Amino acid sequence: MADVVHAFAVPIHPSSVGLARTELRDVLRPAAQPVALVEDAVLVLSELVANALSHARPTRTDDIGVEVRLVGDRLHVAVTDGGSDSVPEIVSAPGVRPSGRGLFLVGALSDRWWWESAEHGRTVRAELRCPAATE
C-alpha cells in the first residue's frame, strides 16, 4: 500500500466538523482500510476539530488546518489551530457535564495523542494503528 499524505483546511464554522469528516472518508476510501479504523479516525478528527472550534483562537488565515498521514501501519491525524491559553488535557471524570469528553474519546480510540506548539498556534495529533485491510 502506498503512503497517503493529505492536508486541507476547514473554516472556523460549526459546519467544519462535518466537512472534515467527509474529507477524511474520501481520503481513506482508496486506501482500502477497514471500516472500523475509518470510523474511529473520523470520530477522532471530529473531536479534534470541535475542540479547535470551541477552545482555540483563529489562525492567521482564519481556518483550521488538518493533516492526514497513512504511513505503513500508522494513521496520523493532526489539527492545527491558533492556540489558546489552556492546555489540552483529558477530563478525568466529565460526569454529567454537557462537554469535556472529546479528548477522552480521542485517547480511547487512538494509540496515542499529544499536542505541540506550532509556528502560529498549536497542533494536536493522534495516531491510530492500522490493522491489515483483510482483518
TrEMBL record:
<keyword id="KW-0808">Transferase</keyword>
<dbReference type="InterPro" id="IPR036890">
    <property type="entry name" value="HATPase_C_sf"/>
</dbReference>
<keyword id="KW-0723">Serine/threonine-protein kinase</keyword>
<protein>
    <recommendedName>
        <fullName>Histidine kinase/HSP90-like ATPase domain-containing protein</fullName>
    </recommendedName>
</protein>
<dbReference type="InterPro" id="IPR003594">
    <property type="entry name" value="HATPase_dom"/>
</dbReference>
<dbReference type="Pfam" id="PF13581">
    <property type="entry name" value="HATPase_c_2"/>
</dbReference>
<feature type="domain" description="Histidine kinase/HSP90-like ATPase">
    <location>
        <begin position="13"/>
        <end position="126"/>
    </location>
</feature>
<keyword id="KW-0418">Kinase</keyword>
<dbReference type="InterPro" id="IPR050267">
    <property type="entry name" value="Anti-sigma-factor_SerPK"/>
</dbReference>
